[in-house]
Amino acid sequence: MARPLATLPKAHLHLHFTGGMRHSTLVELARAHGVRLPDALATDWPPRLRGTDERGWFRFQRLYDIARSVVRTRADVHRLIHEAAQDERDEGSGWLEIQVDPSGYAARLGGLTPAVELVLDAASAAAEATGVGIGVIIAANRTRHPLDARTLARLAAAHAGHGVVGFGLSNDERRGAAADFAPAFRIAARAGLMAVPHGGELAGPPSVRACLDELHADRIGHGVAAADDGDLLERIAAARVTLEVCPSSNVALGVAATPADVPLRPLLDAGAQVALGADDPLLFGQRLTAQYQLARNAHGLSDEQLAELARMSVRGSAAPPAVRSRLLAGIDAWLSAPDPGGARPGPGDARPGADDAPLDPGGARPDPIGARPGALDARTGPGGARLDPGDARVGADGARPGGLSPQSRPA
């Protein structure tokens, strides 16, 4: 029996606000607000999806829009973020970066600025209640006009240092050239925010290259198409740009046929920094720990390799130095603990551990372990190497602007 993955300290860098909602919460809010859910979001959940063609992506986006429509009040926003933080804590995650496009909520929440401030208030309260640090990423939508992205970038910049840690670009990368959004990313960069656009999910290597060349990405959401271009992958590894790989999402949307077809091994073998993410567990049915399970069971990663994946998630994050130190020390402690089963099972005979229990219909674990990494004071990465003070857009104290740790409430 291998070490339980739900107790492995980690950071979660790729979770969307609506997509992180528990299924049980979706059903309850829909009932409360009189929203009729299609079978795919109710009795036939999780939905069967594909995103590699226009029709399939439209259906996926339509289901997402329906789910978004149940978020209507301040209480709803607080509930979603609080439950997301609880779920992160129960899966060993001590730092969450949650991505939101406030345009989708502004009409019901009083406008763009009130929507962002509400999300930040909710993130601060959830961090205080659960002990999970939270950073907010404001994301523009590729299918909207680039001028809208500049408005959101200015809004993100105004809240840099007060909970907003990054600026992203989401939705169908086959629409909206990255270069059109470069001015928005320059606004965000001047405020010290991380650039975290989606790319290399539905389109090929040129999409990833555009994120680097036009948007100067610090991280890339998905980025798995880089595995098809050796020169590009070498560049990504040399620049230490983190790829937010989301295995369950890739399989659900048809980007990869099976978990084993997600190019995790080629990315890691090339030296790329990889942070596993759940993307939209509301639609894909699996949260963060399940991504590590796939890495163990479908790709045969050892506990040492899984621990290094967790370190990569921390190093690629905007977490404050104290949070980084605590999580990295916790990872070392997890790895130094005896393996309950002795030898690690191979990829073909991996035996499920305590953390391999199926998800319940609400997306929560049936028996949350809830273990929290200890607050040890270690400033080292793998092999004893010190954290890189030259990480992109790191402040003088080693922190990027604005994450909400339990000790760091917004002004």
Topology readout:
Layout: E1 10-16, H1 23-33, H2 54-68, H3 74-90, E2 93-100, H4 106-109, H5 112-130, E3 133-141, H6 146-158, E4 164-170, H7 182-190, E5 194-199, H8 205-213, E6 219-222, H9 230-239, E7 242-245, H10 247-252, H11 264-269, E8 273-276, H12 281-284, H13 288-297, H14 303-315, H15 321-336
Parallel strand pairs: 1-2, 2-3, 3-4, 4-5, 5-6, 6-7, 7-8
Helix pairs in contact: 3-5, 6-7, 14-15
Q: What is the count of distinct domains?
A: 1
CATH hierarchy, class: Alpha Beta
- What percent strand? 5-15%
Widest sheet: strand order?
1-2-3-4-5-6-7-8
Major β-sheet annotation: 8 strands, parallel
Shape: globular
What is the share of helical residues? Answer: 25-40%
Quick structural summary:
This protein has helices at residues 23-33, 54-68, 74-90, 106-109, 112-130, 146-158, 182-190, 205-213, 230-239, 247-252, 264-269, 281-284, 288-297, 303-315, 321-336; strands spanning 10-16, 93-100, 133-141, 164-170, 194-199, 219-222, 242-245, 273-276. The protein has 411 residues and is α/β, with parallel strands linked by helices. Strand 5, helix 8 (205-213) and strand 6 (219-222) form a beta-alpha-beta unit.
